[in-house]
Amino acid sequence: MMDPEGEENPSAVAPVQATGNKNDGQNLAKVFKTDFDAKYNIVDIQTPLNAFMSGQFKRSYAYTTLQNELPVVLTKVIDSITKEKNELVTQFAPNNFVQNSREELKIIIGLISRLKYELQTDKPFQQFNGDEPDREQWNNFITHLPEDGRTFYRACWMHTQSYMYRKLHSFVENSIFLKEFDFFAKIKEHSLTRSQDAILSLSKYTRRTENNIEMFSELLKYNLWSNRNDLEDNGAHIFNMHVLEDFTTLDDYIIANNATDIWNCLCNKSNRHQVDIVLDSAGYELFNDFLLAEYIIEKGMADKVCFHVKAHPGFVSHATARDFHFTLEYLSNHADYIISLLGQKFLEFYKEGKFELAAASYFWTSPNAFHRMRSLEPELYTNLQRSKLIIFKGDLNYRKLLSDVCWESSQDIKTCLGGFIPSNLCALRIIKSEVICGLRAGVCDDLLKQEPQWMSSCSYGLIQYVDGSREYGY
Prior knowledge:
Elements: H1 24-30, H2 35-40, H3 61-83, H4 85-92, H5 98-120, H6 135-143, H7 157-173, H8 185-193, H9 196-205, H10 213-226, H11 236-241, H12 243-246, E1 254-257, H13 259-267, E2 274-278, H14 284-298, E3 304-308, H15 321-332, H16 337-352, E4 355-357, H17 373-376, H18 378-385, E5 389-393, H19 394-401, H20 413-416, E6 425-430, H21 443-450, E7 461-466, H22 469-472
Parallel strand pairs: 1-7, 2-3, 2-5, 3-4, 5-6
Antiparallel strand pairs: 6-7
């Protein structure tokens, strides 16, 4: 099978070909259930092994997201800007252009409504026609998608989500008055401010940390479970209130834990002195990323930690450069003395170059799996090759590592990476979808018996490591 960009990907198959049975067409027709399913070719099955995740499969989390989550995101965006239109006009529009900015808001609301309609009726992806810096890349990507793989439900789920959020941001990006507006800024800020109890607890607890595997493993776990915080209704806030007490009860829910391998990697005295973190969410999770980076610097495991943010807002919680700076300023100016001191320390690390904010790359917000980086963004790939360890945060980064394919859960992770091993890799991820690999044989089957929807329950996590040293030889 060919990638959307024309590159051979022998491990992944087109969704309708996934089972390999010559009677697939007849079998699929038998499981059509509703008019919607019939009209949009939705089939009432789980995602087949080795197929791309897609809304075409009704029992997948991709379908659930397209049906129940993404339309709600767009509705909430419309509601919020309608409710806050006076505030937005005051914030972004010059006094003599108030009426013009109100009209522009109406246009943007109309564009979002149309995007929601296109999503709910499985319309084809549209070309980008504005001043988007990544317009050419996106249009080229859409053009090379197969005819039956460029609509919201038929496309790979990763493509659909990336497209929706890119289109959403393009509406303000191409406006006159609202170019700097982030639809999700208040949500991300609230994620930080509502977690002050956990922030204070961790700020105190991590001031005198031991240089050993036990302490490092603890920090990895705090970082891992902070990835739950991007979900407002899953109890993450309650968990954060008692983070030091609660996290010890969750070890059984980490179904792969390579903390020792990660520790050994960082303790290795190589000629690479930089660690990279490809961020996921802003807010409380980003605070935990700073804590982990501080430990790496303070214990002499690296001279610098480089943070990679998203080039534009998306996926509600994803961290941008604005969120990075907001978090540093918020912590350093906090009313609590301990939090403020820690924030000032982080800010000093940033000024000294020990914390570095990488130049924002549109590759991180593109629909491409990471195995395409070497050919599409060779400079970014080369930069990552200089890293001692690359830490990938969150579910979407994990799915992009694995090309958003429904792998056999015990498949070797290096196979699933499709050749993407620029350096040693680490994935810290709360499991929120069926894309997974590298588990011990039988783990997935046992969990399915206990909890059929465990892969989308956000109750389980992974701390996985990939040794890339043999790839570049040191």
